[in-house]
Design a protein that fits this description.
Elements: E1 14-18, H1 23-34, E2 38-43, E3 63-67, H2 73-83, E4 87-90, H3 97-102, H4 104-127, H5 131-136, E5 138-144, H6 169-188, E6 192-197, E7 199-201, H7 210-219, E8 224-227, E9 233-238, H8 239-252, E10 258-261, E11 266-268, H9 269-283, E12 295-298, H10 313-319, H11 327-340, H12 342-348, H13 351-368
Parallel strand pairs: 1-2, 1-4, 2-3, 4-5, 5-6, 6-10, 7-9, 8-12
Antiparallel strand pairs: 9-11
Helix pairs in contact: 1-8, 2-4, 4-6, 7-9, 9-11
């Protein structure tokens, strides 16, 4: 079972989804609404939270978008009391490693303190529910494989038993939020579920991430900045597969249990960038040369984890989920989406976004030159 289909015959549930205007959160919200789930969507709408991700839900009375912070206790308590959700799905997080290196405090505020506040308010509300509703309620906390640290070639993939060993301020803040979620289950009995996913890709991803950044820079003839030699390895997971897995865990996962979610698609960063270039060469060929000529190796970022790999046998064996998107076809569909949705791209590429790219990559390119 890889989607929400089993939920369609049940009475329409209600979920409070935090961070539901971001890349992964909005994909989840769209899937949930297609399944008839009523969604209360709480999002701070900072740089990565984009209401345009949810434009297809305009006028939908069963999708309520609320601008607010998960750390706003009064607002969260009001939403819980007013809408009485059957589940809380927490996507809200600062999620970009490079940003965490520049401003780690922001990641502590949202990912650690914000999650702790959200858990506490939900716990107090949950404790006052009638027994039958409290028993069915779930809090699903969405996390990342980066909390496990780094692997070398040949190392076994991360399992749910892999000790946490985060190496960036981002992954450290997510590790702390995972521990808080577990603690609220062990200490208070809050029915927690945790998921740790590999690198996501797909439509509507904010253009500071690797794949959309490469697509958009290539279309504009700009350098394609690749850290180091591009040898770092990630496991790539299509966002729609990720969201289907979350729905499956929410439906049938064991309370207090963690589930790793991966795409069975390990690739080096350079392989990913070259694949993007090959697709662009096919879809929008240049008059001379190829898009790969734009690849520029830049100074590696501090503490750059070499490899992530996910062993997702638990969710496959226990819950019957498997990814359905092959990386090659999913990547081609993703590139085609960005080509067909330039108004969306133009909307999200604000002045703040351009300033961020200049700060993060400009000095690296200047320091190393355009070596290939």
């Amino acid at each position: 079972m890889n989607n929400f289909s089993d939920q369609k015959d049940a009475p329409a549930p209600c979920q409070l989804v935090t961070g539901g205007a971001g890349f992964i959160g909005s994909a989840y919200v769209l899937q949930a609404r297609r399944a008839g789930i009523r969604v209360i969507n709480l999002d701070k709408l900072t740089y990565a939270g984009n209401p345009a991700n949810l434009s297809s839900l305009a006028g939908d009375p069963d999708h309520i978008l609320v601008r607010g912070d998960i750390g706003n206790e009064e607002l969260v308590a009001f939403l819980l009391q007013t809408h009485r959700p059957d589940a809380v799905v927490n996507f809200a997080a600062e999620s970009h490693v490079d940003r965490s290196i520049v401003d780690p405090d922001a990641f502590v505020r949202t990912n650690v303190l914000g999650t702790a506040s959200l858990l506490r308010v939900v716990k107090d509300w949950w404790r006052a529910l009638p027994a039958h509703r409290a028993q069915k309620f779930r809090f699903l906390h969405v996390s990342t494989d980066e909390v496990y640290g780094a692997l070398q070639p040949g190392d076994p993939a991360f399992t749910e038993a892999t000790p946490y060993s985060p190496n960036s301020p981002y992954s450290a803040s997510k590790a702390a939020s995972d521990h808080m979620a577990r603690a609220f289950h062990e200490t208070y009995g809050l029915p927690i579920l945790l998921t740790n996913c590999s690198n996501n890709y797909g439509p509507r991803q904010f253009p500071e991430k690797l794949i959309p950044l490469m697509i958009l820079n290539a279309l504009e003839g700009k350098p394609l900045p690749v850290y180091g030699k591009g040898a770092n390895i990630r496991d790539w997971l299509h966002v729609e597969d990720h969201c289907a897995a979350i729905a499956r865990v929410l439906e049938s996962g064991a309370v207090g249990r963690c589930y790793n979610i991966g795409g069975h698609a390990e690739r080096t960063n350079l392989e990913v960038v070259r694949s993007v270039c090959a697709i662009l060469d096919e879809l929008v060929p240049l008059s001379q040369g190829g898009h790969a000529d734009l690849i520029t190796f830049v100074t590696d970022r501090p503490g750059h984890d070499f490899r992530y790999a996910i062993d997702c046998s638990r969710i496959e064996k226990e819950l019957g989920w498997k990814p359905v998107h092959a990386f090659e076809s999913g990547l081609k569909e993703t590139v085609a989406w960005y080509l067909a949705n330039r108004p969306w791209v133009d909307h999200v590429r604000s002045g703040a976004y351009r300033d961020w790219l200049a700060v993060n990559y400009g000095q690296r390119v200047a320091a190393t030159g355009e070596t290939r």
